[in-house]
Predict the structure.
Amino acid sequence: MTVPLSRRIPVAPRPCPGNAGIRQRYLIDRASWIWHPGIDRTVFQVVEFALQLDLPSPVEWEFETSADQRYILTCDSVEMGRGPDRSELGGWSFHRYRLSLDAGKHLLRALAWWMPETVRPAAQVSAMPAFALIGDDEAETILSTGVADWKTRISGGWNLLPEKTGFSYHVIGRGFDIHGGAEDGAWRKPVTVAQGKDIWTGVLSTPWRCEPSPLPEQSRERYSGGSVRVVQNDHATQMESGAGVGTGSFSGLCRGETITIPAHSRMQILWDFEDYVCGYACLELEKGTGSI
């Protein structure tokens, strides 16, 4: 099976003065918004959604998707995109994607999360925890949330760090402890939390008035390089770049090589990128039951 081909495609804005949010303008306007049945707006949640596909022939589909608050979308473990771009309820961002798949089995997944007002960044506007995806044309019955056989579970291992103290103005939200050995919850059938169109009146009825994002997809490339300047363990021992610990060296880590961390270790690593880089850490863990 080849790697799925996907790309985000632009959607032209469709002005509709006076009745935007009442008359459908975009495909996503009639989507069903879903969430894990254990919904609780007062609790931080990371939720995974999954849809199994078994295709008798190759397809090329388009679909629109969004979430409150964020999603990371993958197909067969290949990342397709992230969203939505930060927005407000009267102009909630959505993205449209084109996906090409060979015949055979495929897995469409979305990791979505919700942070209550007490812990999320001050700039984050939200209505309720929700995820929506709707396919175009023949893909509508095959891909759409609320129609297709989506499953959901709680993603384990995500814990909020204590609130920062000593700041007179702190607006970026809380950090996390990520437990690599934590178990995920059981797969369950999601519940519909908002319906794109009221079945009796035909009026659009979600709290999000969706608009296509005006921003291009951000580039995402794996970065390797720079130097590890300092490694500090529980005993406050510092090691210069290139010194080994366990199997491998932290200098090799900068080049994408593997490294084995000794059991019961707790370390801080100062990685100097030697350039201006914006991005996310990507860790692949093997073994290490109970590790953090």
Remarks:
- The longest strand covers residues 45-55.
- The longest helix spans residues 250-254.
